Amino acid sequence: MIKQCWQYKHLVRFALFALCLTSQQSTFAEPLKYNITGSYSWYPYFIGNQAEDPGIITELIPMILDMAEIKAEILTLSPKRTNHALETGLLDFDIVSPSWFEKQDLGPLFVKSAPIMQITEYVVTLPENASKYNEISQIKGKEIGTVRGYLYHDDQDFIRADFTSEQELIKALDKHRVDAIIAGNYPALYWSTQLRIPVVLAAVHSDGELVIRLRKEHANLLPALNQAIAQLKANGKVEQIIQKYTQSLAS
Length: 251
What we know:
Protein name: Transporter substrate-binding domain-containing protein
CATH topology: D-Maltodextrin-Binding Protein, domain 2
Family: Belongs to the bacterial solute-binding protein 3 family.
Radius of gyration: 23 Å
Pfam families: SBP_bac_3
CATH class: Alpha Beta
Keywords: Signal
Order of helices and strands: HEHEHEEEEEHEHEHH
Structural class: alpha/beta
Low-confidence stretches: 1-28
Largest sheet: 7 strands, mixed
Strand content: 15-25%
Signal peptide: 1-29
């Protein structure tokens, strides 16, 4: 009787352990939620309504996740809502550059992956105003065009004039609504060409690398993500996709 009782307790403990393990595996298997849209004019990183050529990041992130064997689900949110969703846990990761943050600090809730690719932002202006923005210090105290919801490491130094996208920033320059904007080199040059509005890339505003900003509770996934990124770089796939979208744009 004592032995049977011990066996019963042993089976109960084993069943509880198996249930706990199954629950942990189920939680782990839940897809990570993310958003990559930025603004809808974030060419060439995200290109809306383009199934065949959706943009650099739109192509690379599924490749990284697939190679890392991580399931994920895309939620479409505005930049402002994306930041809030990450802080509250509605989203599990996004794509950012530490250079966009003050002191390159992503905050206590997040960890970052290995770098995926280089990204540079400039103070962009019309040719006749180029001499006003040769140095980054020249934006201090001035009204500068920015994208609503975007992160800027030094936006306490200038007055933000928020617009909905990089496309609208270039239009704002042409209409003299602002003298200068902050934009990535590729988006600025692309929309300059599309809209036939000549612009100049003046002072560098930020220079860094895009990474996956991952909520800290998923930090155990970093080794797999970093290995996938390293492999896609080593086999030339990252550079191939970058060239696909940027070879026609002068840097």
